[in-house]
Design brief:
- By secondary structure, the protein is α+β, with helices and mostly antiparallel strands.
- The protein has a domain of 86 residues.
- Helices cover 31% and strands 31% of the residues.
- A 6-stranded antiparallel sheet has the order 4-1-2-3-6-5.
- Helix 1 packs antiparallel against helix 2.
- It is elongated and about 80 Å long.
- The two termini are 33 Å apart.
- The structure holds zinc ion.
- Zinc ion binds next to loops.
Length: 170
């Protein structure tokens, strides 16, 4: 059960990793964004110029155009972050502005695509390391789970009760 869940999470990580890399490449000429708009707030996930961005915005004015919004626009290379920082940097911005009696507050969390890619590779990398260690133990006649010597054992591992998968040559 736990193993199946780990396999599922590993597969999901790999799929997300490929998606993030594709977005990363694309982010140098397209700015993409998916958002959910509620009457007085909007939550969105975006990608532009090597930067992934999660934002939460609130407004004092209300909108009736509620729902999901997916937008894509050419990326403007001259554009800068509202707080002046480079796009491809980690960051958190909280800014408030007013226009025509409406006050909006935007909280924006930025993370470079490369960082998301590395994080998504951690789990698959860990699984590969563990598989290599396990098969090396089986080859050497050891318990694949704990490394206990099983060359004199036919049944389960006396240490951890794992199934004996060791290759017994004699
Ligand atoms: Zn064991």
């Amino acid at each position: 059960m736990a193993r199946r869940l780990l396999n599922l999470l590993t597969a999901l990580s790999l799929v997300l990793c490929v998606a993030v890399i594709a977005l990363w490449m694309r982010s140098h000429w397209r700015s993409d964004r998916i958002a959910y708009v509620a009457p007085t707030w909007t939550v969105s996930l975006g990608s532009k110029s090597g930067s992934m961005r999660l934002s939460f915005a609130t407004t004092t004015a209300t909108t009736s155009k509620v729902g999901w919004r997916v937008t894509s626009a050419p990326f403007d290379p001259d554009a800068v972050e509202l707080d002046g920082s480079p796009y491809e940097a980690f960051g958190y911005t909280d800014y408030t502005f007013s226009a025509r009696g409406d006050t909006a507050r935007i909280r924006l969390l930025r993370m470079p695509h490369w960082s998301a890619t590395l994080q998504l590779l951690l789990l698959p990398f860990g699984v590969v390391i563990r598989m290599r260690r396990s098969s090396s133990r089986i080859r050497r006649g050891l318990c694949s789970a704990c490394g206990c010597d099983l060359r004199a054992t036919r049944d389960r591992c006396p240490e951890c009760a794992a199934e004996n998968r060791a290759i017994i040559s004699n």
